[in-house]
Amino acid sequence: MINKRKFHTTVFAVLDALAAAIGWGLFFAYRKYIIESDKYGYKIPLDLDNNFYLALCLVPLYWVFLYYLSGHYKDSWRKSRINEISKTFSATVTGVILLFFVLLLDDEVSSYQSYYKSILALFILNFGITTFVRLFVAGYVKSKLRKGEIGFRTIVVGNNQKSFQLVKELLDPTLTQGFIIKGFVSVNGDAKDHILRDLIPYLGNYELLPQLITQFDVEEVIIGIESSKHLDINKVTNVLEDQKVSLKIVPDIYDMMSGQVKMNNVIGTALIEINHDSMPQWQKLIKRFLDIFVSLLVLIAFLPLFLILSLAVKLSSKGSIFYKQIRIGFKGKPFHIFKFRTMYIDSEHDGPQLSKANDHRITPIGKWLRKYRLDEIPQFVNVLTGEMSLVGPRPERKFFIDQIVPIAPHYKHLHRVKPGITSWGQVKYGYAENVEQMVERLKFDIIYIENRSISIDLRILIYTILTVIQGKGR
Length: 474
Description:
Blueprint: H1 2-40, H2 50-69, H3 81-104, H4 112-147, E1 152-157, H5 161-171, E2 179-186, E3 202-205, H6 209-216, E4 220-223, H7 230-239, E5 246-249, H8 253-257, E6 272-274, H9 281-301, H10 303-316, E7 322-328, E8 334-340, H11 364-371, H12 379-384, E9 389-391, H13 398-407, E10 420-422, H14 424-428, H15 435-451, H16 454-470
Parallel strand pairs: 1-2, 1-4, 2-3, 4-5, 9-10
Antiparallel strand pairs: 5-6, 7-8
Helix pairs in contact: 1-2, 1-4, 3-4, 13-15
């Protein structure tokens, strides 16, 4: 199934490129026969030169890349005709404007009205042909879903009347949305006598979800319990934190009135998708570019300071210049974080400890480095290697994570993104001296993850720079 989906995604991208090539070819003819002929007063021949063939190769690639940035190829089987038209329209507007300034602004025209005609013609051709192809693709996908030739392997969570009604709707062939239900799990207690067993298999308790997802290659988990039961929902989402599945929940009337329910299908079950990936693909690419650019800039521009600090650390006390420690990062993977050493050697002979105000383990030069956060400079190397980002939750050691998770299971949500040199939790709350303070700071990092964007990252960076300048670090 996964290979078939990847194949379909590739085919859809090729069709987009083909539509863009046809649109550009027709637009090229329009420029010759209409725009240039109007300027010179006679019919301009259609000369297919090397520039035409070069553009015919590059322009479709440009459009496919733009569609990729807009998230069009994120899931080739979840297509709505209305959404296809909307997404194509917005992407075409952006793409046509960029093409105009890059390729069309220096065209020879009889008047500025010709520019408007060119923009309109390019938009109509590209939007019209691409939309036609995409509506055909969306119809093709819908027919495959209805026939059961493709679909989303699904597990339902819940063992109550609400989940029973949900399963009946999902199994109704007249309302099919492509869900292939493998069974259901219960949240509280055994479900061996429940009515759902007459519809779909009982797979066990919700804590078995990670194993069941692997066993059945599940792509969807639908929570069929009351959305007001936050504790039960949190238990399920925490178990699924590291799983690559789409998570949905059946809404109640309050969810509908609050505007959380978005209608994507006229026929079918209304569901709220719990989507933690709030940052669009194009912003992710910009974020990574900024990570690399700023890290290179800092490491090169501050090289003299880097050398001076290295010498100061070396001369201040016995021990190495850099401090290397294993932290837990993106998707729960461990990595080595680098800092300038700010403590005396063997400062944790009694076990891992968080630093405190007036910590006697910190060297004199270490106190100064921490005050201006200069001890963090080597972490720009971690950013370059992709283990960290400029902005993201601060990474912690497994020793402390094991103490935090029993108190705050939602801590695992921090591993959905790369850890950062600075974070909103650090800006708003500062350093934590114990596990209780780490849990308190957690809420700021959760809010950041659910709302992250380039603009928020820039704000956090500005506040961090102000903190460094004012020497408010510790």
